[in-house]
Amino acid sequence: MKIEKNIGVSENSSSGDAHSHAIETIGELTSTIKVELSTRFLEHFSEQLYSSPQKAFEELISNSWDAGADFVDVRISGDLGSSNATMCIFDNGVSMDEAGLRELWHIAFSPKRDHPIQHGRSVVGKFGIGKLATYVLASKLTYICKATDGVIRRVTMDYSSIDQQKTETQESLISDLNLDIYSATDEDVRLALKGVDAGDIIQDLISYGLRDNTHYKRVNEEFGGEPSQLQRTHSGTWTLVVLSGIKPTGRALKIHVLRRMLESALPFGSEMLIRINGRDLTSSKAEATVIKEWEIGPNLGIDYIELDDNNNLEESADVVLSAKTKKKSSKQNGKRIAISSGTVPVPYVEIPGIGRVTGTARLFEEQISSGKSEERGASNGFHVNVLGRVVNQNDPSFGEGNLSHAAWARFRMAVRADGLNTLLTTSREQFKEREETKIFRAFLRRIFNLVRSYYDSDRNLDISQGGDVLLKSLGVLSLKPLLNQVSETLRTKAAIPELFDESGIEDREEQRKKWRASTSENIKNAVTEVRYFRTNDDSFVKFRISDSTIIINKEHPFVIEHSHSKAEKELIRTVGMVNLLSDMYALDIGVEPDLLKDVRSYRDKLLRFRALQRRQSGTSIARILLKTQHDSDNSKRMEAAVSDALRYLGFDVQDLAKPGEPEGIASAYPTPTNSNPSAENKQPPLYSFSFDAKSSKHEVAATGNIKLDGVVEHRERFKADYALVIAPGFSEGALSTRCQQQRVTPMKAQDLGRLLEYTVTHGAIAVTKMQEIFTLYHPDEVSKWVEQLEKYLKQNRQLTINIFLNALESLKGQIPDVLNASTIAHTIRRDLDAFSVKAEDVVTLVKGLAVLIPDLVQISDSEISINASAKRIADAVKVQLEQLHDDHTD
């Protein structure tokens, strides 16, 4: 270990220095403190143990509490990036004389450890290192103290001098670090504060103290316990801590985040008023209606705690674990731990090894788990207060797993357990994992289970007879998640808007009252019926709040393809309702909305893919495509239709549709592909192409809206052979020239729709034939190719629908054992003079008809079922094809 000697950090300036009144330079030298400090120790206990600049700042506030202050004023420069920026903490605590300052800078030593009660309070500090948290915030840390002897003293730690001694490869021990103590006058301080942001306010506090005493009014304290009896024999003492030379981490401090974090972490109530830039802090509490409250004490009716076998540790274990990490011991001997309780001086329970525990548990009507917990800590869960500080802001479960339940999102337990202080590690956010810790966790879980049981016991919210036949058939089903989510949506906003149809709601609060009154009278009012409607979006199912109806989107591909019979429609209604209520339940137990959105997106893709596997109407895709091409406000609908269309045409489609990416990549896989495998691509397609869809409110897409450079970049990045752009139409002029130059194929949406129609009428189009289109770079050329394709298909496929129907007419009245493709092909050759027709031609055509009119024509391998006369089949085909061009919507 390298030893560094004689590293001084004194400024050697005095009050007589006419050139400077900087706060870290005032006073006359009176004595020196010798400090020994390891640079690696400094880094570890500041940069690693304090997770944010806000958390490091909290240590200074805790020091004010330990000093017996009942007022702390925090002043932070508005522009922390300025070279003159400062952070100041002023308190009216007992402060430090010279002996106190020497103890302050005796690293890793704290006199508080031997005196846990000071000034009538249980003190927070015990390790003697909290001040080192400031290392991450600033280059200089200055203490200006007026102690009981009336002398004003200043000490400044210049961290930049220490930084010069750090080495990258070797720990440095600075054994002769001099911190000079200066004696200053009131005038020194007054002049120096002129250079500090809000220095005039701090000076006013020094001169007159706190003149607003309204904070002494006791407020309701959810953590319970007795208030501290502040005992101070002296007045006029104060401490001012100034951070200057703000470092990058300090500049990242956000005042509003600091405020919220402190409101949650330091619920001192009225015992110590904290102001940040002129605004009082108030204890963070959940603002929501409380259903029931439990006070920790005899009324809980808990006289024992059980430790399960897997979570019991030997008492001698001294493994340091975070609250989020639970390590199991090999020793497994479950225990029942007896606990006692009492009411004097306040309700409490006594837990072995921890002592008295106070507080409250509350169950709220609405979820309180939403919000940016990273900025202020979660509102729900366990809030464990040790000596006035919440020690588990980042872990509201306090290491207890499997708490995902509807009640958890509405549960808040505020518990004061000062006995945990002996188990806290130096970061004051981690615990030594001993048996006492396990006992305390078991106590927390016992309370939550008590609340959860109450929540689940509300039998009035179980459905015995639903609103219609579908609901009745499901038997007993809890609709509490639906009730909660509708109420929460009306109170604030929907966590997932796609779950709800909020049309027809004028007064949200009035609708909420109506909803709650209606469902409390009779649970069947929660869901009146399940109906099919056109939702004009991509949703599969949603809940219409105005009339309590579950809406199935009649235009969703899965619904279109699986709702041809009454039985299928009933099944779709059931699937839709189950999906909706499952999503409501997921939100109710606290699943993050963003995570649930991902699940819903994946489920929707599965539904759409299943619909494609059983695609019964290629024309339905074309209809959706033509309807969505002008719906630029919902561009994703056209993107989905294009993906469906390409899949139907026989391409393997990978959907992307993320920012900076194409809608997808389509690949052609004929057998064989005649492509050479490589190490990077062991199953190469014959060809692949990127595709982008551009909807437009107008007949043509503006040239500026089609970013060909981006299209080309997509093709190159995904190593595709071609690039395709689908739009309602394309502007004349430079676009076609640019498409030619950059080898991009522009296709009109109606031409893509015609390809689908050809597939229905003539059977599948060979992907080898489709490859020709990627040599065309003008939309008119593409349209002409599509037009000529129909002639090609007619010429090369002598088996038409008319010939097929005539063959069926010839077979009318005959009763073969099995109607197969060979039988029909033979009839066509014999009776209709289409001599080149083979069985495989019949199979191709029948598969197309099975897609178009599946209830009338089915095929399995080469066995065919015809469930109507030839004339009725012809009529059905005609109706389906006409619907493709029918713009009427109901």
UniProtKB/TrEMBL annotation:
The lineage of its organism: Bacteria, Pseudomonadati, Pseudomonadota, Betaproteobacteria, Burkholderiales. SUPFAM superfamilies: ATPase domain of HSP90 chaperone/DNA topoisomerase II/histidine kinase. Keywords: Kinase, Transferase. InterPro entries: HATPase_C_sf (IPR036890). Residues 659-684 are annotated as: Disordered. Residues 670-681 have a biased composition (Polar residues). GO terms for molecular function: kinase activity. This is Histidine kinase-, DNA gyrase B-, and HSP90-like ATPase. It comes from the Bacteria. It holds the Pfam family HATPase_c_3.
